[in-house]
From TrEMBL:
Keywords per UniProt: Signal
Leader sequence residues: 1-25
Pfam family for this entry, one: Esterase
Protein name, per record: Esterase family protein
Length: 382
């Protein structure tokens, strides 16, 4: 509650609905023009291990208990997979959610879903904080959550990458485990390994929240023709203009790293290459883009009466004050992006919620609001 405004603002990129505005008309859905193998550009594929966590590090993270609960409840479509990244020479844990209905698993599309600043290593991740397993994977048991047909897709979530922006860094970061080559891993190494292993059909999407909302836009800009849909929830597209450089620096500092390690500083060609607002023109031709944000004004998930708050006045005050400031900051960023894409004539579905802070209740809501845009990309009309 006494956190400084600068520190609060740092979390804009570090955290982690009716549709408010749709810019122009979305283009017709189309399948990915580029296969996973073509997108790799000769990079070696990740090496996958199913059902056997890497010895010595398999019990470090908090989400595994939740995975075990799902499996015991009959969700045999949820599993942990390990991927060895040649570029980083490290093992990356993944959560893979396949369609609950076995008959939908072969020839399914793939959604790559990114966590926020802690990379999913703590409590703040899609598995612990949302019903992505039930709602996107599918659920026919009311006792287990909302009944849903699911999205008929494989959902692949890296459960690592804290304070990395899921970017390729120019220097190693010892405090974050050494070499950081997350974009190479996520866009080149992993797809050419995981999609054939899951018998996926080649249609794919990328989505992220808070810090990784920036990453999802950048992946689309850097890799045209790769994604059939893009989701960006409560993030800041800019990284080099306005207050964004301060946000980025403070975010990295939380992980014991610096902008010099990541991009050589925040006034470099590499930094500008990784500014999604500055490079918004590169979104031209990208179909099915969804971008969302609240206003920072307290909404249904922020009050003590919300099941997420469960009567905890301190928690309510924290999300209303701190989460409100953060979401107000990302709201400004998102309006900047909307102004830019509108001026460029690039169609984007914007969801500006009239209420809501920077917290998981609204990102769970985004799973639903993003779904029509996502489905148009993953399951294009014949």
């Amino acid at each position: 509650m006494k956190r400084s405004i600068r520190r609060i603002a740092a979390a804009v990129l570090a955290a982690a609905a009716p549709i408010g505005a749709t810019a122009l008309a979305a283009p017709a859905a189309q399948a990915s023009a580029i296969s996973a193998a073509e997108q790799a550009h000769g990079a070696a594929p990740a090496t996958l291990t199913f059902g056997q966590p890497t010895p010595g590090i398999e019990g470090k993270d908090r989400w595994r208990g939740r995975l075990e609960e799902f499996r015991k409840s009959g969700f045999d479509n949820v599993q942990e997979v390990w991927a060895h990244s040649p570029a980083m020479n490290r093992d990356i844990p993944l959560v893979v959610i396949q369609p609950k209905k076995p008959e939908l698993r072969d020839n399914a599309p793939t959604l790559y879903l990114l966590n926020g600043a802690d990379g999913g290593e703590g409590r703040a991740n899609w598995i612990n904080q949302t019903d992505v397993v039930q709602y996107y994977g599918g659920n026919d048991n009311p006792a287990a959550g909302e009944v849903s047909d699911g999205i008929g897709a494989n959902i692949v979530m890296p459960m690592a990458g804290a304070f990395s922006y899921y970017s390729d860094w120019i220097q190693d970061a010892p405090s974050l485990g050494g070499k950081q080559a997350w974009e190479t891993f996520m866009t080149k190494e992993l797809p050419q390994a995981i999609e054939p292993a899951l018998k996926a059909n080649g249609n794919r999407a990328i989505a992220g929240m808070s810090m990784s909302a920036t990453s999802s836009l950048l992946y689309a800009e850097h890799n045209p023709g790769t994604y059939d849909a893009v989701g960006s929830f409560s993030g800041c597209a800019a990284t080099t203009t306005g207050l964004a450089p301060s946000f980025v620096e403070l975010t990295l500092n939380r992980g014991g790293a610096t902008p010099a390690q990541m991009w050589g500083g925040l006034n470099t060609d590499t930094a500008r290459y990784n500014d999604a607002l500055l490079n918004a023109e590169k979104l031209r031709g990208q179909p099915n883009i969804y971008v969302s944000n609240g206003t920072g004004i307290a909404g249904e998930y922020d009050w003590p009466t919300s099941p997420r708050i469960n009567g905890n006045l301190s928690a309510s005050g924290q999300v209303i004050v701190e989460g409100g400031v953060i979401e107000a900051g990302t709201n400004t960023c998102t309006h900047d992006l909307a102004n830019r894409t509108n001026s460029l004539g690039i169609p984007v579905t914007y969801n500006f919620r009239p209420l809501g802070t920077h917290q998981w209740g609204y990102w769970q809501q985004d799973l639903r609001s993003f779904q029509p845009v996502l489905m148009a990309g993953l399951h294009p009309a014949k």
